[in-house]
Amino acid sequence: MPQIAIVGAGPSGCFTAQALAKLLPEARIDILDALPVPYGLIRYGVAPDHQGTKTVIRQFERLFERQGVGFFGDVRLGETVTLDALQGLYDAVVLATGLSADRRLGVKGDDLPGVLGSGAVTRAFNDYPDTAPVSIGEQVVIVGNGNVAVDLVRLLAKGAGEFHGSDLSEAAAGQCGRVRRIDVVGRSPSDQAKFDPVMIRELGRLEQAAIHVHGLSGEGKVVEALEHLQGHAPDGATREIHFHFGWTPEEIEGQAHVTAARFRQGDARLVLPCDTVLTAIGFEGTTPGADAEGNIGPGLYATGWLKRGPRGTIPENRADAQAVAARIAADLATVPAGKPGRDGLLDLVPQAVHYAQWQNIDAAERADCPEGRVRQKIATKARMLAIAQQTGES
Amino acid sequence: MQIAVLYGTETGNAEMLAEDIASHLSDHDTSVTNLSDFDPAAFDRETFYIVVTSTYGDGELPASAQPFAAAMDKARPNLSGVRFAIFGMGDSEYPETFNFGGKRLEEILTGAGAERVGERVTHDASGGDMADDLALPWIDAILSTVDA
Ligand SMILES: Cc1cc2nc3c(=O)[nH]c(=O)nc-3n(C[C@H](O)[C@H](O)[C@H](O)COP(=O)(O)OP(=O)(O)OC[C@H]3O[C@@H](n4cnc5c(N)ncnc54)[C@H](O)[C@@H]3O)c2cc1C
Ligand SMILES: Cc1cc2nc3c(=O)[nH]c(=O)nc-3n(C[C@H](O)[C@H](O)[C@H](O)COP(=O)(O)O)c2cc1C
User: Fold this and answer.
1) How close does chain B come to A55, measured CA to CA in Å?
2) What is the extent of the structural domain holding A195?
3) How many Cα atoms sit within 13 Å of A361 on the Cβ side?
4) pLDDT tens per residue across span B79-131
5) What is the set of domains in chain B, with CATH numbers?
């Protein structure tokens, strides 16, 4: 019976477990995560008002509830356990820890107070445990032309009444409620913007934001979607969104705090006065150098964002996870059995949070949520652990 | 009766539902096939088809159903006498194109002469229902008319 450990319970780790469970029905599969709770960026990245996208979680629940996959939460690779120890216990170890550090702008002033990375902001909006609240002012410049930038625009431009059915918390709503003007600035021309046209179209349903699109050029689905947005002006709009294309960031101005963002296009300059700059220009970190099938070395694999770099959607991770799982299944055909697997891990991390304990947390989050919300995430690790340890009888 | 469950998916929701439908119908001789692995020449009048598909992009078919759509377009098979039921999966967060995937696939099949049995039912990922809770009673009702 092959023993497989997957480190990281985000979509890549879970899809890898799903594919392995199909290919190797006799294998014992355990998923570890640094947090007491599973699902990675599905829970802490995907926007609180895109609950439909989070329904893939139902597939993962089945892994833990019916297919015998183990969950070991609050176990951080490199701190709670070492890679050597895991490799000693398991025939195959799959690293699926993602890459979540915000890429910095790399211009003067990019470290001023008031400049925030999209990862930090989306974690705060998603109640990532123990994250410092972010302070967002009234005039916000968003740098970046990808879907995370659009998520930020939409969350900041929505009024309090537009979050029905989401899991946006009171605390998070308080952080995004004051915005009056948003400027979204991209380096490339509009026809090369990486926006998903469907997400652009969604902005046309904003109830309180007037939208102005400047400097459109070229053609294609994104340009069409942006043309469609131009002039969106609901009655009594309380905020404005401006899109700008083809501007390279030059400097963030300010003394003790951001006061303006300056961009360049040839000899032209664009200076946008602001109190907040959000950078949504991607994430970074080191990939472990896996081959196309995810193999790093004997018995060691990588999948997901960690393997391919911090780009790509949930479906891409699924396809990648299936390819990596196929490679693992082929490799394991020739590995002699006998490693201790889960029994050894239980001894090594006796305090780990197990799936039934996560279910306690999940139930508490659903039960304790305000009107119009589907969930109220527990926002500190200490509270999560306290709920996890309740026996359910009291 | 032979039953073939065909699915089109990107993130696996339709695949899981297809498997659930097949295990629910274990009294029958049932297979589950990804549309990406299904050849239009394999359609068979003795088999009842249950098609499950999600929706992506601008109301397009999910990646795994696209090769099938292209193959249908190329082969133009005559599917008269072939019967199918279709279940769509979508998300009302995309109101303009809600469940267009199911609609497209239905048009492709009926356009080739196949006969739809029962209503095309759709699941909303943003709604409160579990796909199983909609799909299993739906298929039971359909099969009770087909079996007879
Ligand atoms: C803000 C944002 C919004 C997004 N929205 C969408 C969307 O709407 N649709 C879409 O398709 N894609 C979206 N994406 C992309 C999607 O989230 C990623 O493609 C996907 O989550 C990557 O999966 P992963 O499993 O590789 O990494 P992650 O989801 O990051 O999972 C990694 C897991 O590893 C754990 N971990 C990290 N370090 C350790 C360690 N040392 N030990 C143990 N565990 C560890 C983490 O806690 C986490 O649970 C979004 C991304 C972001 C950042
Ligand atoms: C990028 C993206 C685009 C989508 N577009 C649509 C759409 O246009 N219409 C719709 O009804 N659903 C749409 N959906 C929702 C999916 O069809 C729905 O989540 C479904 O359950 C996914 O099933 P699958 O996992 O089998 O692919 C979209 C989802 C994503 C992530």
Assistant:
1) 6
2) 102-282
3) 24
4) 999 999 999 999 998 888 999 999 999 999 999 999 999 999 999 999 889 99
5) 2-143 (3.40.50.360)
